[in-house]
Amino acid sequence: MRTLATMMIAVFLTAQTALAGATQDPVQAAFDSEARELASLDGSKIRDFFTRQKTTKPLQIERSRAWIDAQPVVTGDEQWACLAQALYFEARGESVRGQFAVAEVILNRVDSAKFPDTICKVIHQGTGRKFACQFTFTCDGHPENIHEKGAYARVGKIAKFMMDGAARDLTDGATYYHTKAVNPRWARKFARTTTIGVHHFYRPHVRVSQN
């Protein structure tokens, strides 16, 4: 009987073989590296391979406006400021859950090889190039003035909680989103993971060979 470790390794290597003829890109390179590392592990270390980044339990929070508003006002560094501003301009009219979900997308992008590796770089990717910005507020031509101090304080706390390790369990790994008011063509290429408030959330399809 095949062991769990052997089966898991086979899945990784089958997917690797199916993609071998494709042009190498950063995502493929990361996948290949992960598959090779998995193949080198014995069964007792498989679990450690998947959980090595989970060195601490997720930060315990409540995703309710009342709970968030009761927490002390926070400040932070440049990366925190970028995330707080993005949440304010992109999602301040959303529910608290919706604001957490948008933060998940941004942090998921930071962790992805397909996107820049800091919060500020992710948020400002494409800024200044027509139709190329990733977050509308960075290229809509409107000044980025913060008038709603209470809303900004709230999203600032959410930004801090997410950066400090709050669980990302709302969007199932989404790296894209758009409002229900639009129907962009790019959305047809991705798998919708959930809908929260006025936003649909997506991630790339993952295809594994069935041969």
UniProtKB/TrEMBL annotation:
Any Pfam family hit: Hydrolase_2
Which superkingdom is the protein from? Bacteria
Coiled coil spans: none
| Cell wall hydrolase SleB domain span | 93-202
Q: What are the TM regions of this chain, as residue ranges?
A: none
Keywords, in A-Z order: Signal
Q: Which InterPro entries does the UniProt record give?
A: Cell_wall_hydrolase_SleB, SleB_dom1
The reply on keyword Signal is yes
The signal sequence is: 1-20
Molecular-function annotations in GO: hydrolase activity
Protein known as: Spore cortex-lytic enzyme
> Taxonomic lineage per UniProt?
Bacteria, Pseudomonadati, Pseudomonadota, Alphaproteobacteria, Rhodobacterales
- Encoding gene (name): sleB
